[in-house]
Amino acid sequence: MSQTPPPQNPYQSAAQLSPSDEKLWATLVHILGIFFSFIPALVGYLLLKDRGPFVRQHTTAALNFQLTMLIAYVIGIVTSVILIGVFILLAVVVVELVFSIIAAVAANNGQTYKYPLTIEFIK
Predict the structure, then answer these.
(1) End-to-end CA distance of the chain
(2) Which of 30, 44, 92, 96 is 20 to 30 Å from 8 by CA-CA measure?
């Protein structure tokens, strides 16, 4: 009679990503944030935070930045009735585009990046 191996623990941590995979996912989280706001950063943070320190740092930074930009978008929309909101919205679009590209390049080069102008919701 053969013995079956014991079932695997479903709660054990996932395998670590290779350095190249960490760089790839970190880069993708920053780039996709330009198009889909905080959703890629949130999904990346929830799925990848335990898969390596590099990808955790980048997903945390991207999520904090995208949530800050979401708040800025809301402020811009609310204040657009008094015309200043239009300028706020334009500034937010430019800031989000520029800093996300800078962060993606840093991630692709294997460097850490901390977004300026960011409220730290997650540490």
Answers:
(1) 52
(2) 44
For the residues of 39-104, what is the DSSP string, one character each?
HHHHHHHHHHTTS-HHHHHHHHHHHHHHHHHHHHHHHHHHGGGGSHHHHHHHHHHHHHHHHHHHHH
Say if pTM beats, i.e. exceeds, 0.85: yes
Long-range (24+ apart) CB contacts under 8 A made by 67-70 are 67/38, 67/119, 67/121, 68/115, 68/117, 68/118, 68/119, 69/37, 69/38, 69/95, 69/96, 70/37, 70/38
User: Token match 């320190």: residue?
Assistant: 53
Which token pair is 56? 């955790």
Alpha-carbon gap, residue 78 to 76, rounded angstroms = 6
